[in-house]
Amino acid sequence: MPCAVAKAIARLESAGFEAFAVGGCVRDSMLGRTPNDWDITTSARPEQTAALFSDCRTVETGIKHGTLTVIMDGMPLEITTFRNDGEYADNRHPVKVTFSTRVEDDLSRRDFTVNAMAYRDGRGLVDLFDGIGDLTRRRIACVGDPETRFREDGLRILRAIRFASVLDFEIAPETTDAIHACRALLQNIAAERIREEFCKLICGVGAVRILREYHDVIAEFIPELEACVGFAQNTKYHHLDVFAHSLAALSYCKTDDLVTRLSILLHDVGKPLTYTEDENGGHFSGHAAAGVELTERILRRLRFDNATQSAVTVLVERHDIPIVAEERAVKRLMRRMSEENILRLMEIKRCDRLAHAPEYSVPPPELERIPVMVRELLAADACLSLKTLRIKGDDLIALGVPAGKEIGRLLTELLDAVIEGDLENERDTLLQEAKKRIKK
Ligand code: ATP
Ligand code: MG
After folding, report:
1. Are residues 76 and 185 in the same domain?
2. Could you read off the pLDDT of 225-250 as tens digits, one per residue?
3. Which of 88, 250, 330, 399 is the residue whose CA sits 20 to 30 A from 60?
4. Is residue 116 part of a domain?
5. Distance 304 CA to ligand 1 centre (A)
6. Coil, strand or helix at 188
7. Is 168 found in the same domain as 100?
8. What's the 362 CA to ligand 2 centre distance in angstroms?
C-alpha cells in the first residue's frame, strides 16, 4: 500500500472513523498488478472527511455521492463514505444514495466479487463474497443476483466482459447467462461510458476470446460487426468467415495501441455490404470504401475524438492497398500519412495477412522494409512536405503570383515533382521551375 494511502487511512482512524482501501486497488494489488488509482471507503461523512483533510488540496468530485478527492503527498485519493445505493432509475443511476456506518453495506453495492474487497493494514481483508476465491479461480461473478444487478445498472454488463478481457478471467455461468439475457439494457447507457469500457476491452489480453463469446453484446452498440459474424467469404484466400477472420487478425496484433486494434477489428466491416459472387467464388470489391463509411458512423456514434476517428478511418481505407518498398512510393505515402500511422498500417497489414488461409498467409517482406525506409528518409530530412520545400509562398509572390489559392497549388506541384524525383529540392532550381510554370 502506498505511503499516502496508509497515511490517509491512519488519519481517518485516529479521528475515530473506519477506513479501508477498496475495490480495484485491492484486487490489482492481490494480482500483483499496479492499481490505476487508490480508492478509500470510510464511515466518515463527506463534510467530516473534508474537515479532516483541510490541510490538503481537495476536489469535490461527487459530494452528492459521498466522494471527495484528496491530494495526499501529490497522490489523488478518492475518499468515499460507506454507501447504500437503494433503488436505481433508468438502469444506471441510484435514485437516492444513503450513507451507512457499515463497510458491509458498501461492499454489497459493488459490482463483482473481486471488486468488493476492502483492506487495511492491521485488520487485513474484509471479503464478504469470496472475492479471494474468485481471484484464485480467475473468475468474474456478480455480487448477488446477476440479473438484478444488471437491471440496476446496465453498464455492469460491459464492465463484466471488460474485466474478463483485461484480467484474462472466465465469467461465472450465472453471470454469463445474465449478460446475454440483459444485453439490451445497454441501449440505456451513455455512448461515452460504453466507449470507455469497449476500448479497455479490446486492448485486453483476452479481447479475442471475449469478442467471440460476447459478440451479441457488442452488437448492441456496433450492429455493423454482427453482420460479419458467420459471413462466409467463399474464396480460396480465406478459410474463415469475416468476423472470425477479423478476430484472428486481432489475435496476431502485438500492440495495445487502441487505434491499431480498432482498425484491425473494423478493417473488413464493409465486406457484407459489398459481396458479389461469380464462377470464381466470392468478391468484395469496394469493401474498404464501404468500410470507411461504416467506420465513420460507428466511431461517431460512440463519440470517439476526432484524432481517433480520422486515424482509424484512414487505416481502414488503406488496409488493402499494396505498397511497394520503393523510395518514391514510400515518400508518397509519407505525404499522406504520419510516421505513426504508416507503422500502424504495416502492423494491420501483417495481422490481416496472417489471418488469411494458410497458403496465403505469409506477410510480404515490404512490411518490414517500409518502416526502415520511413526512418531513413526522416533521418535524412528528406523533403516530404511544404515545410521542408526550399521555397515558400513569399518567393512566389515575389515572382508576381497573386496571393491566394494559386500559391498553394503551385507549391504543391513543385513538392510533387521533388518527391517524384523530377526536381532537386534546391532553391534556384525550384525558382526556375516556378517561373516556367507561371509563364504557362
Ligand atoms: P480500473 O480502475 O482498473 O478500471 P476499478 O475496479 O478500480 O478498475 P473503477 O471504475 O475505478 O474500477 O471503480 C472502482 C470500484 O467501484 C470498483 O472496483 C467497484 O467496486 C466499484 N464500482 C465501479 N463502478 C461500479 C458499478 N457500475 N456498479 C457497482 N460498483 C461499481
Ligand atoms: Mg479504479
Report:
1. no
2. 999 999 999 999 999 999 999 999 99
3. 88
4. yes
5. 22
6. helix
7. no
8. 41
Going by C-alpha positions, the residue among 424, 347, 362 that lies closest to residue 391 is 424
Chain length of the chain: 440
Place of cell 445474465: 178
Residue nearest ligand 1's atom 30 by CA: 110
* Stronger pLDDT, 97 or 189, i.e. the higher one: 189
* 270 in Cβ contact with 293 (< 8 Å): yes
Round to whole Å and give the CA distance between 55 and 53.
5
Q: 3-state SS of the chain: helix, strand, coil percent to 5?
A: 55, 15, 35
Amino acid occupying residue 136:
T
pLDDT at 306 over 90: yes
Q: Do 42 and 77 form a contact (C-beta atoms < 8 A)?
A: no
End residue of a domain, out of 86, 104, 129: 129
Cβ neighbors of 348 (< 8 A, separation 6 or more) are 249, 260, 263, 264, 267, 315, 319
Measured between alpha carbons, how far is 195 from 260 in angstroms, rounded to an integer?
16
Closest-CA residue, ligand 1 atom 21, reads 110
Query: Model confidence over 259-299: pLDDT tens digits?
Result: 999 999 999 999 999 999 999 899 989 999 999 999 999 99
C-alpha cell, 80: 468515499
Cell of 33: 498488478
Half-sphere exposure of 311 (CA within 13 A, CB side): 22
Q: Diameter of the chain by CA atoms?
A: 88
Partners of residue 283 on adjacent β-strands: 276
Q: For 355-385, what is each residue's pLDDT tens digit?
A: 999 999 998 899 999 999 998 888 877 767 7
| Alpha-carbon gap, residue 21 to 117, rounded angstroms | 9
Cα(425) to centroid of ligand 1, in Å?
57
Nearest bound ligand to the CA of residue 196 = 1
DSSP sequence for 34-81 = PPS-EEEEESS-HHHHHHHTTTSEEEEEEGGGTEEEEEETTEEEEEEE
- Mark whether 255 and 377 lie in a shared domain: yes
Q: Look at the block and give the residue holding cell 483485461.
A: 166
- For 364, the domain range is 250-382
The finding on whether 34 has its CB within 6 A of some atom of ligand 1 is: no
Same domain flag for 371 and 259: yes
Q: How confident is the model at residue 6 (pLDDT cuts 50, 70, 90)?
A: very high
- Choose one of 129, 155, 186: the last residue of a domain: 129
